[in-house]
Amino acid sequence: MRPETDGLRGNVRTLLPLLTVVFSLAVCGRVSLALPIDFDGLADSVVVTNQFAFVTFSNATAVKAGISLNELEFPPRSGDTVVFDDGGPMMLTFSTPFSWVEGYVTYGEQITLTAFADAAGTIPIGSVMSLFNNNMAISGVSGSSPNEFLQLSGIGLIGSIKITGDPGGSSFTLDDFNGTPTPEPASLLLLGSGIGSMWLRRSMRNRRRSAAAPNPIDK
To answer: Are residues 8 and 204 in contact, defined by beta-carbon separation less than 8 angstroms?
Structure first.
């Protein structure tokens, strides 16, 4: 067998993990660009499901200011689009666990944000409630203001979250959802750099060996 063929096979075997990591980095780079989710790229009245990387929404519909959204009571925190709880509590399911989550809510009934360890939403690991029963811009409780900040962190890996207002829905809006998927893109970058260095060293070593060894087909 030709020595250069052996070197090629060895390089391919070493390169495969690197390619896997590069692919993962590309995916995580997509996430870092997608977060926070401000919903502004969605059309009015679009049902929100899996339009965003690593997050699947249930019971969520986008509404735009000047069209379907009552922005006098439910002003967006940024841009002109929010999502509301359409038909029941809003669920966000993550294809890879998040280490923390946060968002801004405007509501007509008190809100509970619950985190679950699993994607099915059966193992609760933490929750937080809104400060008021109503924080709408005009008719909200005295001392409240729209777009209240809610966050859950330091409770372990989060597989899904549920935001509950009125059980029948149409009670709150969500804007600027944010969080961190795990592993973090920075961690994968370090891993990819390490594998890349390992592949480079092996490639250079194989080339030196091939150069030093006599080539049988040159005789």
So the answer is: no
The confidence band for 119, taking pLDDT boundaries of 50, 70 and 90, is very high
Distance, C-alpha 30 to centroid of its chain: 9
Handedness of CA 111, 77, 145, 72 (dihedral sign): negative
What is the model's pTM? 0.73
Type of residue found at 63: V
Q: How far apart are CA 128 and CA 114, in angstroms?
A: 7
Q: At residue 22, does pLDDT exceed 50?
A: no
First to last CA, the chain: 15
Cβ proximity of 125 and 116 under 8 Å: yes
Query: 39 is written with which tokens?
Result: 């919903």
Residue 33 region by backbone torsions, left for phi larger than 0, else alpha for psi between -120 and 50, else beta: alpha
Q: Averaged over 166-175, what is the pLDDT?
A: 98
Residue 66: strand, helix, or coil: coil
> Quick one: residue 200, left, alpha or beta (phi over 0 = left, psi -120 to 50 = alpha)?
alpha
The mean-pLDDT minimum among 3-7, 24-28, 166-170 falls in 24-28
* Residue matched to tokens 């679950």: 116
